[in-house]
Amino acid sequence: MPRPTQLPFSGTRLARLRARAGLTNAELAERCGQLGHPVHHTTLGKLERGVQMPRPGLPPVLAEALDVELDDLLDDARAAG
């Protein structure tokens, strides 16, 4: 499995899943903080727009905070392996 920094993270999927959960970026940031991984709500916006890539370890936290599988946050074009 690729290291977290190599995961083909999808900001578009993050935005869709966050909206589906009925959360604002601030609320998702708060959930991440409660899980022990603080992240600023503006950072989440940058991730969603593809301006920034997540730091190592953040995608699994986002998945947990959104109650989805990590694969749900990955780009469809991810490499098999």
UniProtKB/TrEMBL annotation:
Name the Pfam families on file: HTH_31 (PF13560)
Superkingdom, natural source: Bacteria
Named from the GO MF annotations, one term is:
DNA binding
Q: Taking every annotated instance into account, which residue ranges of this chain make up the domain HTH cro/C1-type?
A: 14-73
Record-given protein name: HTH cro/C1-type domain-containing protein
